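During the no-cost extension, the postdoctoral fellow (Dr. R.K.) reprocessed legacy sequence entries with the updated structure-token encoder. One reprocessed record is reproduced below for audit purposes.
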Amino acid sequence: MTIWNFTGGGQRTAAMNIFINLLNVIFMAKIQVKESEITVLSINENDYISLTDIAKHKSDDPFIVINNWMRNRNTIEYLGMWETIFNPDFKPIEFDRFKRDAGLNAFTLSPQKWVTATGAIGIITRSGRYGGTFAHKDIAFKFASWISVEFELYMVKEFQRLKEQEQSQIGWTAKRELAKINYHIHTSAVSRYLIPQKVTAEQTHLIYASEADVLNVALFGMTAKQWRDSNPDLDGNIRDHAAINQLICLSNLESMNSVLIESGLAQHDRLIKLNEMAIHQMEILSSNGKRELLK
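Re-encoded structure tokens follow.
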């Protein structure tokens, strides 16, 4: 795991400054845990969960809740071990001092104090609209278990649901991009071999559209317009509603059509070949139901 160093004060290394700058490039999501809304930040591909939001499940004063948790000796030992494993710039001498004083009546420890003194990266504090105290998911789950074991279990469940949704979105984006990349190859071939000299922009568009429909008919059995007319209540286009098997096949058809265009084959003949290819590939991708290659 790679995590940039961050401190709330003191001397900053170049790595710290890079991290601080990258804090402005953040992906935020929220999960609902037992009627509590928990903020999740993705920073440099690491997930940080709001301790402030978690603490609100226990009290209206989350600052006190977090500080009480941090002054606990078991908490300090866990934080120190986590930093030792993942943070090469962690300051063990300062950690030992906190560990020694933990348990004393006068001992207090805030997230800001911990980060500043030890160079910790597992906990960060932010100001502004989405401010508060955030911790790496490992630490946040530990804090949640201190609040309530039941709450922790529900939070883990909702966090896993969030990650599954993100992965699903990544997969959908990837399959759409795969088709787009091959479409660029396809349209390049159309430009070089089908478009006559000095055509108008409208004519150029029509040529591209007709080639796109050659693929649509070969694979889906209908043109884009025919699909829209048959599905007036659906958003997007015929390819937006395609299964991943169809998009894989479409990607291959686009590449093959480019080759056929360059060979000078007429559109009618290309449609027949592309349709044969689509039938063959979809039979392979859809065969062996137990295995379910792609869905």
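The mean pLDDT is 78. The CA atoms of residues 218 and 275 lie 4 Å apart. The remaining legacy entries will be reprocessed before the final report is submitted.
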